[in-house]
Design goal:
With 84 residues, this protein is α+β, with helices and mostly antiparallel strands. The chain has a domain of 49 residues. Helices cover 30% and strands 13% of the residues. The longest helix has 13 residues.
């Protein structure tokens, strides 16, 4: 993001959440502000997504795309300690 401001972050989050292509949205710390997990049919659909969500935000400075070639592990379980 170009500028750090809660209102601008919320505006981007709202746009990301409303996009059907976005399956997961995380606000993170470090070299980027958000990580989106996106699912699209093909590169044309990805280009449309970029235009309607990413490029449409005037606070977006840059973004990086990573494509998954294979998935070697997917586990969403969490160990929870239960006190008795």
């Amino acid at each position: 993001m170009e500028r750090d401001h809660k209102r601008l972050y919320k505006r981007f989050q709202d746009r990301a959440i409303a996009a059907t292509e976005v399956k997961q949205c995380y606000q993170v710390t470090g070299e980027c502000d958000f990580v989106l997990i996106v699912s699209v049919q093909d590169m044309n659909a990805y280009d449309r997504f970029c235009d309607s969500v990413l490029h449409a935000d005037d606070n977006m400075r840059k973004f990086r795309t990573l494509l998954s070639r294979t998935r070697s592990k997917f586990d969403t379980s969490a160990s929870l300690a239960i006190e008795t």
